[in-house]
Amino acid sequence: MANSPQAKKRIRRNDRRAEVNTARMSRIRSFVKKVETAVAEGDKKAAEAALKEAQPEMARGVARGVIHKNTAARKFSRLTKRVASL
Fold this sequence. Notes:
The chain is mostly helical.
């Protein structure tokens, strides 16, 4: 149990950050899912549009430290390859 005021403050701060980071990850997943759904339906135009929206969202996640840059690069590369194969 946290006893010092600093430790108590860190717990409050960590809880707030965890909530924000969870929302960011959820948002990234939603954008990625839009691309995957469009690819599954075979809609190239929608997939390209969704990919164009997902890329900056993943980059924002990298900048905020929510997702590792290599993970984002790998996901984007795989999504791009799937969209190009349509």
